[in-house]
Write a structure and sequence with these properties.
The protein has 281 residues and is α+β, with helices and mostly antiparallel strands. Helix content is 38%, strand content 20%. The chain contains nine helices and ten strands. The protein has helices at 14-23, 39-56, 63-78, 96-102, 115-120, 136-151, 161-168, 171-183, 250-263; strands spanning 7-12, 25-30, 84-90, 109-114, 127-131, 197-203, 214-217, 222-229, 241-244, 270-273. The strands form two sheets. It has a six-stranded antiparallel sheet. α2 (39-56) runs antiparallel to α3, α2 (39-56) packs across α6 (136-151) and α6 (136-151) packs antiparallel against α8. The protein is elongated, with a radius of gyration of 21 Å.
Amino acid sequence: MGKSDKVLFHYTSLEGLLGIIEKKSIWATNILYLNDTTELNYAMSLLEEQLHNFFKRGITHGEWFFRTLLEDIRYSISSTEFPFYVCSFSEEKDILGQWRGYSSKGIGFSLGFKLSYLITNENNRTSVVKPCIYDESEQITVINKLIEKTSSTFTHDNKSPDSLYEMISSKPAMEFLTEFMVLAPTFKHPKFREEKEWRIIYRAHHSDKNVKIEFRAGRSMIVPYIAIPLTREGDDLIINKVIVGPTLEPNLSKASVEMLLESKNVKFDEVECSIIPYRHW
């Protein structure tokens, strides 16, 4: 199977399945409101550590620039208007941790989409589909390449007020910020390796009038999200595979899902049941 034929699975609840089919879209949550609130802090600590090592090697050009950028990133992460939204998928179609995390007491579905299908429907290049990186050495390598690429654009380190504005609004600064902000949501702690997670990462430009930020009830607060279309206008939705989560009546659930997909003209290959025994977690 080639990379483009890889099937990625999105775990969701009963209500989530109905919404995805009805709206032909999938929700991307503002990254600040994910279940694991430490994710961005993890990426930031790696960046700070590698910049510290970079300057310890005696490389000073761009140091003031990077320190200013770090403050800018910290401010962005603490801002309520942080513009990055993510939607999670897994290479694994049927694992206990995902049922517990993304469905209601394990009762739900995992929906399989081909990677090529998700890439084809990327929204005007404002979204990307990327695998998460769990290996710390690989994360460090990626960050160092970004630092070195950006630092090579500087030949001096002018600290005048005019140069501050010019640097932070410069092309290297914008490229560094964008690349890091897209990388950061893919950096996950090694203990989550079994998830084999991929993410749609959507950058919402608040100045774009076509971006509609919506809101849903979370476990303890109102959560902002964006609905990302899964089809072109007029096209049928394609869900390659549906896995029925652990439930008391798996065969009945499988039959009703097949009826639902057929009634809504959803193209699908198969519906199957989880092999994990039902438990009322």
